[in-house]
Known about the structure:
The protein is mainly α. 89% of the residues lie in helices and 2% in strands.
Amino acid sequence: KRAGKIDAPLVLDQLRCNGVLEGIRICRQGFPNRIPFQEFRQRYELLTPNVIPKGFMDGKRACEQMIKSLELDSNLYRIGQSKIFFRAGVLAHLEEERDYKITDLIVNFQAFCRGFLARRNYQKRLQQLNAIRIIQRNCAAYLKLRNWQWWRLYTKVKPLLEVTKQEEKLVQKEDELRQIRDKLDNLSKNSQEYEKKYQLAMEEKTHLAEQLQAEIELCAEAEEGRARLVARKQELEELMQDLESRIEEEEERVNALTSEKKKLQINIQDLEEQLEEEEAARQKLQLEKVQLDAKLKKMEEDVALIEDQNHKLVKEKKLLEERANDLSQTLAEEEEKAKHLAKLKVKHESTIAELEERLLKDHQQRQEADRSKRKIETEVADLKEQINERRMQIEEMQQQLVKREEELAQTLVRIDEESAAKAAAQKTQRELESQLAEIQEDLEAEKLARSKAEKQKRDLNEELEALKNELLDSLDTTAAQQELRSKREQEVATLKKTLEDESANHESTLMDMRHKHAQEISSINEQLENLKKLKGGLEKSKQQLEAENADLATELRNVNQSRQENDRRRKQAETQ
């Protein structure tokens, strides 16, 4: 390693292995240079003169117009939200162009400055040349006239002419002094009159101040009344909001009641369907009962036939036993007949056993049929009672539904009336708001009139002070000041008249406002009473609807319980 010597391939290989060249390549492919819109416009605006108009313009639009005028390739830049991005080398090119532009501007500025200085020096030289020529011409004329006799006579007579003019001026000044003294006498008389007028004006000022104080107190009372009205308005708005919320709750409850009514109607339809099904089941049971009765009759007939056969067999058995006794005596003789009779006996005994078994079975079947008959009769009686109870319940439910429909109609009418009352209350609220807005406008107009009156009062005081000062200084003034005084007197008279008119208007507006306030307060009290009555009616209707809702809920529970019991009994009857 030595200073000043470098192995270029080795360094390049190291940079490639470290990823520096790849980073540079990626940086060149991207947009490594970025600059905010404002900085770009401030730095490179001189490259695009007369492109951006005067006045405010968005930085993004200004940069777009500048780049459009620079005619840059669209691949060399990208415009973001707050910055503009450039590829590698674009900003360097713009900096070179900026340096060239700045050098051109500086050279042109230097040339302009040199030209301006040269032109100013040239004008100065021309003025000096003209002055030299004028001095030379005057000196030549003086040299010609200084020894001329008539010139000397003119120079001696000219001061005497000025003396005669001074005497004439003195006479004129004395006349002016006499006129000024006469004017001063008149001014002294006028000043006395002005002092009297000033005293009268001061008295009027005190009177106006008292009136203004009274008006201020009235305005304070009006402000207090306005504050009370605003508070009252807020209370009424809160009441209206409460009433609206309650009306919404009542509407929700009415909707819930209507939904419950629909559910009850659906339940009634289901109950009617169940009643129809139970009626069909009852008819089916009656048919089964008739069939069972027919079976019982048939079985009784069979039992009677079997008993007849049994009696016959018993008789035959007795006869056979008698014959057996007879035949036993003649057993030896008739063995073949005995064997045959034994066979017949065995056969008859088997038939007798079969008949006895059949009798037992028929007796058991008859007992079971009797039990099922009694059970069916009890179930039929229970079903008849349940059907009668269901009919009674349906009639009661229908009556209750009629009552509920009438009550719902009444509640709907009541809700319509309440909605109409609500609309009327909203209308009165809007009217009150408009009246309050008018009152506020009147108060603002009154404040403006009051401020104008105070301002005019201050202006009058200032003008009176100015007139007083002018009266004090009028001893040394001329005739023009008297005209100003007459103008001031006229202005004072007009101002007094305007003050009187404004005070009268102010009093009339105050009276009107008091009358309006009294009427509005009475109307607000009436509206409050109406709202209280409406609130009481709504609370009563709310309590009634809650009670009706509780009754309907209990009835629904009872109906559901009875329906479940009927389903259970019907299932038990079907299983049996």
